[in-house]
Design brief:
Radius of gyration: 21 Å
Strand order of the largest sheet: 1-2
Number of helices: 4
Distance between the termini: 69 Å
Largest sheet: 2 strands, parallel
Helix content: 25-40%
Number of strands: 4
Structural class: mainly alpha
Shape: elongated
Mean pLDDT: 87
């Protein structure tokens, strides 16, 4: 039996759950197992688990009832010929930081791809061209030009 073990965990928080809430939930879970959890830097001489938080950001999202969201939805449906579906990104983007700095109406759209940030990562070229068309149409409509 080893004297110690190290685990790396990556939690992506959804909007409405603050990093402190997640940390407290982890401490309660550890306690339910009969273990103590302390954050690195705390007094943790007798802690069973020492946790180091590298980055702690609350998830964020935009309202999909804004004029900007309507513009994006209409442009998407014109280009892709299907209904737009909105979702929370399971990955990390700068959108949350941009919102935290005071920018509003920050949306993220990208091409279809596979194996993100892993060996063999790629994007589907046709989706890159369609995304370009989506961006261009959105910009034209935003500036007041009609199709």
């Amino acid at each position: 039996v080893p004297a110690a073990a190290q685990v790396t965990a990556d939690f992506r928080l959804i909007p409405g759950i603050a990093p402190d809430e997640m940390i407290e939930a982890l401490k309660r879970y550890a306690a339910s197992l009969g273990l103590t959890l302390a954050e690195a830097g705390d007094d943790h001489d007798d802690a069973d688990i020492i946790m180091e938080v590298l980055l702690a950001l609350e998830g964020s999202r935009e309202s999909f009832v804004s004029e900007e969201a309507k513009l994006l939805k209409e442009s998407f449906e014109a280009v892709y010929k299907s209904a737009a579906v909105t979702t929370l990104s399971p990955g990390f983007t700068d959108a949350g930081r941009l919102r935290a700095s005071g920018l509003e109406q920050v949306f993220v759209a990208g091409p279809e791809g596979y194996y993100a940030h892993a060996p063999g990562e790629y994007v589907v070229i046709d989706s890159l061209y369609r995304l370009q068309e989506f961006y261009f149409l959105t910009a034209l409509r935003y500036l007041g030009y009609s199709d």
